Amino acid sequence: xxxxxxxxxxxxxxxxxxxxxxxxxxxxxxxxxxxxxxxxxxxxxxxxxxxxxxxxxxxxxxxxxxxxxxxxxxxxxxxxxxxxxxxxxxxxxxxxxxxxxxxxxxxxxxxxxxxxxxxxxxxxxxxxxxxxxxxxxxxxxxxxxxxxxxxxxxxxxxxxxxxxxxxxxxxxxxxxxxxxxxxxxxxxxxxxxxxxxxxxxxxxxxxxxxxxxxxxxxxxxxxxxxxxxxxxxxxxxxxxxxxxxxxxxxxxxxxxxxx
Amino acid sequence: xxxxxxxxxxxxxxxxxxxxxxxxxxxxxxxxxxxxxxxxxxxxxxxxxxxxxxxxxxxxxxxxxxxxxxxxxxxxxxxxxxxxxxxxxxxxxxxxxxxxxxxxxxxxxxxxxxxxxxxxxxxxxxxxxxxxxxxxxxxxxxxxxxxxxxxxxxxxxxxxxxxxxxxxxxxxxxxxxxxxxxxxxxxxxxxxxxxxxxxxxxxxxxxxxxxxxxxxxxxxxxxxxxxxxxxxxxxxxxxxxxxxxxxxxxxxxxxxxxxxxxxxxxxxxxxxxxxxxxxxxxxxxxxxxxxxxxxxxxxxxxxxxxxxxxxxxxxxxxxxxxxxxx
Amino acid sequence: xxxxxxxxxxxxxxxxxxxxxxxxxxxxxxxxxxxxxxxxxxxxxxxxxxxxxxxxxxxxxxxxxxxxxxxxxxxxxxxxxxxxxxxxxxxxxxxxxxxxxxxxxxxxxxxxxxxxxxxxxxxxxxxxxxxxxxxxxxxxxxxxxxxxxxxxxxxxxxxxxxxxxxxxxxxxxxxxxxxxxxxxxxxxxxxxxxxxxxxxxxxxxxxxxxxxxxxxxxxxxxxxxxxxxxxxxxxxxxxxxxxxxxxxxxxxxxxxxxxxxxxxxxxxxxxxxxxxxxxxxxxxxxxxxxxxxxxxxxxxxxxxxxxxxxxxxxxxxxxxxxxxxxxxxxxxx
Lengths: 259, 326, 333
Known about the structure:
A: 9 helices
């Protein structure tokens, strides 16, 4: 139960090829980080993985099933996307926003019943924001909104969660809240795939790391092997220093003026 | 037009008659008619002309929205004007409150109201008067329900109108002058479809703006110069005064201004350029000005006779002078 | 639900019913409660005029007012969700311009009241159809839809101007003008066919699907992720709302502001979730229009145009709403 992409080629227009043969596997019980420079195609890749965009070549399968053979509802029950931006929704409580995630399980003329609200509550609980359930969504902080959006994706009941830069625009405390929540979900067996601009977060939380450079995914490796100074420089065009503390913790610091 | 007296309806104790309105609808009205409500503003004047003014309970009067707008003469003609005056869209329930025997309406403007009135069994006569001849037809239709005296007066009015036409057309030997009929403002002119064009034709003239369609049309000074009318007529309700055109350098080259043939209509009860009985005077008034040598009409005397015989109203000396002024 | 919420809900749903009943009692012609009761339920002795007045004049008019108010409000809710913009109502896509043109065309052609209604309805749907077609061709983003709506409205407004120009000044032109001002005067049972059909067909569906309306507020990517067939949903919502509004305008003429403001008041009272906001708006819309139409036909000895009354109440109402929207947005930036 996971999502797998094979040989993805995608161009927006004939002249603008963004992905040139990407292979990727986001496995169960793992957190997979996709790193790459701005414009390297990370968001495009995620959109292809949930079937919003169709690649010119290549296949995506979710839980072993090709994604183009799944109905939208079936697909939504297997893989969920948490997008990058999440504007506030005035007039809705957090619960009401999260329960929208159950849309794929409800008929056209049904309103959510106890089971759906329970699922929404469980999702809020899993992300540690159960106390926000009745708060107005518009009054949340950016970090709280991020957690709420993840809760909505979780409420879909899918086993695979794809997140577009979930650690962006957050202070360190919220970044840790979000990422540790995701780690806990992986422990429960879910497949987590996320894009990020923070190599250090990958160092701490990733089970597997992929770089998107030049439209191609570098081989998927464990963080130790993937996050080297050479690979980072190839990906971002900037030099890094890999620092290791006596206790074994590692960090990547960008070099300033080559120092 | 039939006047058939149906047998008195048993148990109700009121006589009824079946009449035909000018649009050809057969309507059953009670007899005698005592209480009339008249949203069709032209017909209000027909009622007075037919001697049925006292039977009017609520009336709409052209150009009069409140008692302050009413010409003095109208207030003298109708002492109870303040109570009877109404305006705007007719309200069915309000009219029912007045126990009306019949309602006189505009066939198209009050179409929905007429249908609704039918639902509650309120008799409605529909009118659509667009020509001077139409006034006579309408008066005959109303007279049907009012009784013999009214019928006689309607016929008399018909004869009077024929005479007016004869007097006006008899003077056409010297050709039909070009006439420009203005509206509320100097560049608003009457289009071909309007009643004003009929008036001009009856008076032996031709309207320069007859080719225009629709309602009052906004035109340009340049177009007026092209038309070069020989006579300019201004209605009584306009804000334009002859002096302003006669003294305006822009209008100075126009034939009408050069020969100082710019006239403003007078008004006693209703405007003379609308389909009310008074427009008969409008025809004579206009004919006299279009063919000053041809039309043998002593206007002051005509006006006095008209108001006396049609409306039963005696002109004061001051009113007579005003109406006959050049 | 909290106590206050419950009380609000009860009030919102009983008020229109009370107003409907009350509408039968008010009017320039004095009718007492016992008389009205006897007339309505055909019991006892009541003068013919009173019975006809209650059953054939006041009742169809009250029902029309309630339906038009409910439909315009529902249309406003749907369009605000659909276009992600709280400051629009159904008119933005040309519904009312098309209807006005259709009505005027029929009036100029000398057709009867029924033909006027169907013509208004037909052209209203045509106008929206044009917007959808053009929108489809050019990408169906909100911007394209709104701009096309403005263009189509302008087109029909110009055509209307042309019709007014050629209309007979003595009768047709005043009839057109009056239609444009909006009024329920003269509404009889025979006139209610399109309105009742549309209302009874679509409102129940709308109410059943009221939670789905929430999903209209999602953008395309979010909706896709959630497995929501957003295109079909948007199309259905657009179609339903347009039919409701077109049927209403063809009956009452142009009655503005209700579709714009009632959704805001409803959301203010019961929150933004459409499970509550939609039924609340429908009830509120019906109540408001019953109230205003009652004033239109009773306050003065003459009929006041309904559209003018909604404007008088609506414009200051809109300013209040605008202030609220700006405050909400401003506080969060």
